[in-house]
Structure formats: C-alpha cells, structure tokens
Give the backbone structure.
Amino acid sequence: MNNYRTKILSNQEISPGYFRMRILAPGFGETARPGQFIMFRVQLSQSPLLRRPFGVFRTGFLPPDCEGQPEKEYLEILYKVVGSGTGIMSELHEGDRVEVLGPLGKGFDLEAAAGEKILVGGGIGLVPLYMLARKLTETGRVRLLMGGRTRDDILAVTEFERLGVETYVSTDDGSLGEEGLVTNVLERKLDKYPDAVVYACGPMPMLEAVQRICTRRGTPLQVSLEALMACGVGACLGCVVKGSGHSEETPRYLCTCKEGPVFRAEQLDWSRAGEENGYCEGCKS
Amino acid sequence: MERKRPNLAVEIAGIKLKNPVMPASGTFGYGEEFAPYLDLERIGAIVTKGLSLKPKAGNPTPRIAETSGGMLNAIGLQNVGVDAFIETKIPFLRKVKTPTIVNFFGNTLEEYGEVARRLSDLPEVAGVELNISCPNVKQGGIVFGTDPCAAADVVSLVRKHLRKPLIVKLTPNVTDITVTARAVEEAGADAISCINTLTGMAVDVRSRRPRLANGTGGLSGPAIRPIAVRLVHQVVQTVRIPVIGVGGIGCAEDALEFLVVGATAVQVGTANFIDPTVMLSVIGGIEKFCIEEGIGDIREIIGSLEL
C-alpha cells in the first residue's frame, strides 16, 4: 500500500465519454491483486475536495526513454465522465502531477475458481475484470459477457480477446453484438455450463439480476461494488453496504473499501439493493 | 549555519505531546487504519473514533456528500463499543509510543458515566475527549452540547467517574459558544476541543431529495475553517483551560492560524481522508515556519495574535 505522488503518462478518450489514463506507478504491479482499487486525487487543489475511487484496469511496463534505464511501470484506469471530478480528469495531460493511493481493498477470491469462469461486465464495470481475466486465463478457460446501452459503452473487448478470453457482446439497442440484456446471455451460458462460477461488475440493476440468476441456480458469484468514499482505508465509514442478515434491529454494515469492493453474493443483503446508493451506481462526480 | 530545531512540544491537561498535531476523532479510525501510511509515533497524539457503551450501527446510506470546499457526513457514530475497543483495539495502541486520547459519548447521562468509568481504568488511555456535539444522532451527542446546563451535568458526572484528563468537544451549532465553554470549564473540563462539524444539508435537485439518507449532516473541511478560527478565538478569551483548535486544517499555515489565536494544539480531520500522510506535512511545515521565523519554541506562537 502506497501513497504515490506521480505523473500521468497518457490520458486518451477511447469511446465517447470514456477515457483511459495511464499513470506512472513503480512497484504497483507487485502488490496489486485483481479487483483492488485506487483513490485518485483529481487535482492538488481543494476542489474537488475528496479523492475518487477507481478500479485498476491493468498494470504493465513501458520501454525506457533511454537505453540503460529501467522500464517504466504503470497502472491504468478506465473511467467515464459523469460529473465535475471526472470532467477535470478528462482534461489532464501527459506529465501532469497526480496523487494515487493504493492498491486498496480486497480483490477477487481466486481460490473459488474451480469450474468454468464467466465474467459479466456492464459498461465501465468491465474495469476490474481485466486483471482477473489475466490471472484466470493462466489456469483455464475464461468467458466474458459484456453489456452496454449502446456500442459506445462496449470497451476494451479486444484486449480480453488477446488474453484468449471468449467474449460475447450485447447492447440494449443492438448497435453492437446481440440486442438485449447481458443477463440473457448469462442464462444461456449457465444452461450450457452449469458448473460455472461467475464474477460480475456493473450497474446495480445488472448486478441484482445476475445475483437472482446465480442464486436460483446455486452458481457461486462474486460481485465488485462501487460506492461513494471519502478515505478508501476504512476510517470514514461512508461507503458501507448492508450485509446479509441486516435488519433494523441487527444492523450489519460492511465497508466497501476495506471489506470489499469484491464480495461473495451471499455476504450482502440484496433485498433493497436498488434503493441504496452504496452499491454500484458509479462515481457520480 | 544550521539553526537549532525548534521545540514543538506542548502539554494539554497534563498530556505531554511531542508536537501539537493530532487527528480529529472520527477521521482516523482506531489508529491502525493509518499505520500503513504514516509513523504514528511522529504525531502528537492519536484520537480514536467516538465510542459508546454498546456497539452502534450508524445511519443508513448515503452517509457522505461532497460540497464546495467541504464534505457533509451523517455516519451516525458507528463504532465497535467500549468492550470491543478494549479487547481488539487497545493491544495495537499499547505498542505505539504516542498518547492515545479516546473520544466517547453516551445515549443517556448514565451511559456517559459508565463509559467514562470503564475508560478510567485503562493505563493505555492518556486522556479522553467527551463528545457532546455530534449533529448526526438523535440520542446523546448534540443534545448535551447545545444546552449549557445539560453540558455541565454530563461533564460533572463524567468527572466523578474519571481519573484522567478530560477534554470536552464543543459544537458550533449554538448561539453563543462561550456560554457552553464556560459551563464545561466550571463543571470540571481540563481542556476544550473546538469545533465539531456544523449542521448542513445538500439536495439532489433532480430527485428533489436530500443527498444524505439522514437529511442533514455535519459539514467539515476547508469551508468551515474561518468559522472554527473565530470560535476558537472567542473560546480562548473566555476560559483558562487549554483549547484544541479543529476545523478545516489541511496544511501548516491552517494549523498556525489556530495556534496564533490561542489554541494550544490542533486536530486535523477531513484532510486525513484526502491524504493519509497530511499530518506529517502539517508538522513539518510548522517546524519549517518556526525555523524561518527564528522561533525556538512553539509556545511563542500560541496566542500571539495582534489585534
């Protein structure tokens, strides 16, 4: 865990409204596990005040500028411009100084990956699944079901394919891949591979639907959540979600930043998930 | 020629601090959350999250909302309770050679007394900070802090049960903070922390609903600093006991403002969320300021305001 004062290597729009930012991060890849996240300081002034949480898309190395120098290690995030904070981020350039805290949180549990592995990504929810796919393809076959409203929401699929991941795309408007919800594809895949395990990240309605499908079939499911966060290290208690067995009499809150952001589906209370903003609504600003 | 390092040590109600910088309660967990980021032995004191007699679940979500220059929170004093604190948090704090100040509150007068009694027996606790000022819970908290008589009652009761330095944290959500300050001093407080958050509200204009599930929350961060400086200045003029300045401190200059108006020490709150190492920058900056200004002892700065 580290507090990096570092700089941006590149920041490019990859699809309308979606950006990919590469940040210099020496040593980051040695400690980062699939599913962990960073807190990114949007700018060094007091506006916006709080950092923003982002899932780590990938880590890697760039060749050195000059011969004899070490390779440059980077981390990469993908983000969607949704408010003032991400708006400012989209204007940042190569060489701009930034601060990154991380890697943070608990990542995916890789021990649970016995059967077929199905990853379900909705829009920007695809982000934490890439490092997971990279790890899981070391030992077996991995499928990615990627959903979005339109073709603009379908990101980085070729990079998954380069890992050898079989990818299936669906869009609500049929502008890319199959028309309809990604959960329809999931149902079909689970019919075919009943012993599969599922990993999902995306908007809350999608996660709820995935959870219903998996629970009905007894399919193991891990979900990666997003939440409003102030600190990212378990101190502010602003990012809590309701755990299973939660009630007014016996409240049970789990910290998304420290006990998550990845949870086994059965750890959570799904009964009123749609009304809670603690779940994956995405960073609103 | 290299100048001698200034003396930054101060004393609050008998608690010796190596420098005047400590976290504000509720922004630093129980200390261990920040151990990966900063050497806890370099800060003046550790101030832990508010404890109640029984564990407390806190409020529904959303609990935080960002506003210009600040944040609103309505966490609702979620905490592990005093017994779990003693069992699971004290062993870590025992190993850190920095004084621990334990913040606590009660739902009733009796609970305040009971928590104070339990904390009184712990050698690891250097002092306690009495929370009578949290705006986010119906029971306890601010109910005691907004009525000077109730504040005096709870301080007197805690004083009876406590054989440790007693710091009382005041709310700014009153007409005249000096009345409460005087009341808690007379009732036996050894020091005052000033201020807790200001009650605020933020609204989502599309849904027309409050952005916090609780409706309102406590405003903290740089936006409140001028108010906090003014209130500390007023309280320092009113009481003889030391005052700890709190509210929107994010750098050395912010902290120095509070010291100049008369705070003996400061607490850094929201800034810990933004940069977990910020207190080290504040301490380093104060030291640098002293060297630049030719100040050999931090106490020369305290209360040096010229009007």
Q: What stands out?
A: Chain A touches chain B at residues 1, 3, 41, 46-51, 99, 101, 227-231, 233-241, 251-253, 258, 276-278, 285 (CB under 8 Å). Helices of chain A lie at 28-31, 84-90, 129-136, 157-162, 182-192, 204-217. The first helix of chain A runs from residue 28 to 31. The longest strand of chain A covers residues 2-15.
